[in-house]
Design goal:
Elements (H helix, E strand, L loop, with lengths): L5 H30 L7 H26 L3 H23 L3 H18 L1 H11 L5
Amino acid sequence: MARKPIGIMLLVALEAIVGIMAILWGIYFLWAGTQFLSGQIDRLYWLMIVLVSIGTGGIGIYIAKGLWDLKDWGRTTTLILLAFAFIGSIGGTVNGNLISMIILITSVAFIFYLTRKETKAYFSESCQPTSK
């Protein structure tokens, strides 16, 4: 198999970092809920925040693994998530929010990158059986 392009490796790194950060947030909320927040918030709400954070992070890491392995489902899932990021950042961009602008520009750049014929070829090659 050919070397992975830098763009794919960058996407893998970003996806993995976001996944790890979501897991760390979940662990932090778990710890903070047991240390400081007991009695101040609804316990079911707190538990849902913890579970969703950890679950989302785990899914993000799994998607990063799919991208690393050049699985077409990893590319497709990433495209869908980037489309959601793009749509979600439009309102903030219109209001002048810098982070939203960065997310909008980054998501458009990666959507363009993942839909290029050359990039798609890397993922389609990984779906082909290898003959020896």
